[in-house]
Amino acid sequence: MALTHERAERHSIQVRKGDNVKVLAGKDAGKSGRVLSINATKNTVVVEHVGIIKRHTRPQQVPGAQRAETIGGVVEKEGPIHVSNVMLIDPKDKKPTRVGISRGEDGRNRVTRRSGTKLD
Q: CA–CA distance from 22 to each of 10, 38, 53 (Å)?
């Protein structure tokens, strides 16, 4: 049975929202920031102040504003980065590290491979 469309590979993403990560590859390699959102189906993350893209938007009035304010023009915002291009920063020594899973009596926890620090 052949598939007519390509199915997206979905892996478990070790990075969570709020984690500090360092960008390893791409135009912003070397920068670090906090993860704002994760798209598990596309395997992408949005990192604060990294991967800035420009969007040209039409001026529109802000709903619920007391004055007639318009937002438009060239808007800069963070763009998605593939999860393979970022690595978690170890909270102990502030260097990039891999993430492991430890299972104990308190459940399943994420730990850093560099120092063994629990993340959750």
A: 22, 15, 18
The 3-state DSSP class for residue 94 equals coil
Residue 8 has pLDDT above 80, yes or no: no
Single out the residue of 85, 93, 79, 90 nearest to residue 46, CA to CA: 79
Of 101, 69, 81, residue with least CA distance to 21: 81
Residues found in the chain: 120
Question: Residue type for 92, please?
Answer: K
Token pair, residue 48, equals 């604060």
Q: How far apart are CA 23 and CA 83, in angstroms?
A: 9
Find the radius of gyration of the CA atoms of the chain. 19
The reply to whether the predicted model has a pTM over 0.85 is: no
The whole-angstrom separation of Cα 110 and Cα 14 is 8
